[in-house]
Structures are given as C-alpha cells and as structure tokens.
Design a protein that fits this description.
By secondary structure, the chain is an alpha+beta fold. It is built from 5 helices and 8 strands; from the N terminus they run βββββααββααβα. Strands 1, 2, 3, 4, 5, 6, 7 and 8 form an 8-stranded antiparallel beta sheet that branches. It is elongated, with a radius of gyration of 23 Å. It starts with 17 loop residues before the first strand and ends with a helix.
Length: 206
Amino acid sequence: MTGTDGTAFAPGLTFNSKVQVWFPQTMRPEMFHVTGEAEHKGIQCLRFQLTPEMLQVDPAFNNLYTGFNNMTTLGAPVFISKYYFLDTDTSYWHSSLLGMKLPTPVTNDTVLDVEPMTGATMSAKKRIQLNVFLSNDTYIAANAQNMSLYYPNVRRGVMYPLALMEESAEITNNLADEFIHQVYFVYRIQMASIWVCLGAAGILTF
C-alpha cells in the first residue's frame, strides 16, 4: 500500500510537485498534481487535484471506462466517478439520463489545499459518486424475463448514479493562528537574518 492519508506530505512542495494519497473507497493510491493556488485563513496553499492519468482506462485496475474506478472485481457492484460524471465522456453518459445536473469543476471535484513549506494539508474535500452500470451481461440475460416484467422501462447500457458522497476537513481558526505564528513568524525571522548576514558580508567585502 502506497500513499499517505492526505493530511501531510513531504515539505518543500512546488508547482511541479505530485503527491500520492491512498483512497480506501477505490482501494488504490491516487496521484495528485498542482492545478493552482488557494488561501485558507491567511495561509497560502497549493491546490492539488487528480492527475488526468488516474481517470483513464487502465487494464491493471480493470477500469473499463474513462473517469470511472471499477469496483466490481473487489466485490462491490459499483463504479466510482467524480460528481455528475465530471471528467468522463460526459455527453455520452448524460445522454442516457433525464434531469442529470451538469458538472462544474470548481465545486464538484476532489481537492487538496496544501501549505507548501511544511506539506501540511489545510483543507481537503473528497467528492465521489457511486454508480451502477446496467449492462447486457450474463446475470442480466439470465433474468431478462423478470427484468422485462418488473422493470419494463429500465434501459441497459446505462451508468445509473446512486449517491453523492463528500468528506471534508479544514484547519480551524485557532490552529491557523498558531500555524502562522509558529511557522510564518519563524520563517520571516530566518529570512531577515539571512538578508542581514548577506548585507554585512557585502559591506565587509566592499
């Protein structure tokens, strides 16, 4: 098992950094990359979101469709995606459903906001959608008569959403104040000391 629980990463993160988080829902490590910046209670953060590679078809994990984690081989008859089929073949899956809300990346994606100097996560929002894919497999074929009798209007070859799930956490005001005092204050003192030493060295050299 690789990846952290998402609460902290190696210090010294940059815009080119990638971090790995273990997702118990998908039973695999998920890779995140920097997509922008964010600010939480005066603390500047890098925003991390899933890398595009994590959403592609992947035979190693039996992922059959872009944007979906296939959990059927692990005993759960579900496919996990982002909210409202975000980053899937959205037009295809939406075409089979009525009333399905269109996704918005800002509010429907999983995001980690991490303070880069320390690697501490200041805010995290994990958003997943559980889906059932009703296909023409052997189980459905064996029960086709019952399906036609009891569910005559249920279409096959459709990914049916079951539920939206969100887990979120954010640093409190007290902890943010403590972090700013202990980390940023010390950092500013260190930087001031470096500049003083460089200035003194320049004067002596002159």
